[in-house]
Structure formats: structure tokens, C-alpha cells
Design goal:
The protein has 216 residues and is of the alpha+beta class. The chain contains six helices and eight strands. The protein is 47% helix and 12% strand. This is RidA family protein.
């Protein structure tokens, strides 16, 4: 009972100082929220202290919170295309819609005549990829083919725009090869979340987005 009295004293003290300020400033919504949170917190704490089981109350709290969470989730993460499904960090279902039907990424590559290279070996002290919560983070890629640098220089100076596009395409193919090595198959991948590109260019060159189109 001492714990309950101390808890009640705490809420009473907070209410004594905070409620007048909220009323004075017209903070009705904050006042209602404070009252509800205080009441629920007191009841839950009392139940824990006295070993009460409150399944209905905890279920009610879950129902109160869930609509807000789902609304925020839908706003931040719009529904994905049919065929995608993500469940708690594990990606499931990797069929994409192309031409009106379901097609895996590996099949899509074959259809377009794209052959991925072997996963490039690290050229320094780093790992090619890291998997965190179902996401594959790859190391930066260079326009390397068969162990040799295919393009060097700055776009707009030593390299043309078309050569820059080709270099970007080669970089993303290497990145996809790394992802395939990490996932076992591109059909185990749901989608690309983020692609970052860096373009070494001449001072008077301003078509970097056109270069990166070779990758995207």
C-alpha cells in the first residue's frame, strides 16, 4: 500500500503544478491526455503491485494505440505493389509485376539479356555487404569488370556523358551481384530501398543526373 500511496502522491504533485498551467494556456488536448495517461498508469501500476491480471485493460490500451500507429504507418510507408510483402524485417514474396504478369527478378534479367558479373572482391580492408534486419547494405562499387577498372577520369573532361552512363551501369551491376551473393538469389529480394551515386565530374559539367540514369 505504501507504493500506491507514493504513486498517488506523485500524480497529485504533478497535477497540482501542471493542471493550472494547462488550463491557463488553453491546452485542453494536453490536459485530457495527461488525465488519461495518469489514470491508466495508476491502474496498471496498482495492478502490478497487487498482482492483478488486467487483460481487458491492456487490450483496451492496445486498441487505443493501434489506429494511430496504423495511420502513421500508412502515411509514412504507402502500400507496396501487389506481390510484395514484408514481415518484421524478413522479406517475403519477391515477384514483381512486369507486362501484366508475375516475374522474378532473375527471370527479368534474362529477358533483358543482362548477365550479372561475379561479386567483386574487396580491394581493401572492408566487407562487401552487411545484412541488418533484413536489409542488405552494400559497399561502394567502382566501374570494375574482370578485375580491371574500365573507366577512369572525370565526366565532362576525360570521359564523355555516354561513358559516364556506362560506368554507372557497370557499378550498379556490380552492386546487384553483391546483393545476389548476400541473398542467394535476387528472387529473395523485395525491392531496392536506396541507391546513392557519386559522379567525379569536371567543374563545368552539370549533367550528373543523366550519368546516374545509367544506374537507375
Amino acid at each position: 500500500m505504501l507504493y500506491i500511496l507514493l504513486l498517488a502522491l506523485f500524480y497529485a504533485t504533478v497535477a497540482y503544478f501542471e493542471v493550472p498551467r494547462m488550463v491557463k494556456n488553453g491546452m485542453r488536448r494536453e490536459l485530457y491526455a495527461f488525465a488519461v495517461i495518469s489514470l491508466l498508469g495508476f491502474i496498471l501500476a496498482t495492478g502490478q503491485i497487487l498482482n492483478f491480471k488486467l487483460p481487458n485493460l491492456t487490450r483496451g490500451i492496445e486498441i487505443l494505440v493501434r489506429p494511430v500507429s496504423k495511420a502513421v504507418e500508412r502515411k509514412l510507408f504507402p502500400p507496396q505493389a501487389p506481390g510484395w510483402r514484408q514481415s518484421y524485417g524478413r522479406i517475403e514474396g519477391s515477384k514483381a509485376h512486369f507486362g501484366g504478369g508475375l516475374m522474378g527478378f532473375e527471370e527479368r534479367l534474362k529477358e533483358r539479356g543482362i548477365v550479372l558479373p561475379e561479386s567483386p572482391q574487396p580491394v581493401a580492408a572492408y566487407v562487401p555487404y552487411v545484412v541488418v534486419d533484413g536489409l542488405v547494405f552494400t559497399a561502394g562499387q567502382l566501374p570494375v569488370a574482370a578485375g580491371k577498372m574500365r573507366y577512369t577520369g572525370r565526366v565532362g573532361a576525360e570521359l564523355s556523358l555516354d561513358e559516364g552512363r556506362a560506368a554507372a551501369r557497370l557499378c550498379v551491376l556490380n552492386a546487384l551481384a553483391v546483393v545476389r551473393a548476400a541473398a542467394g538469389s535476387l528472387d529473395n529480394v523485395a525491392r531496392v530501398v536506396k541507391l546513392t551515386g557519386y559522379v567525379a565530374s569536371a567543374p563545368d559539367f552539370f549533367e550528373q543526373p543523366q550519368v546516374l540514369n545509367g544506374a537507375s
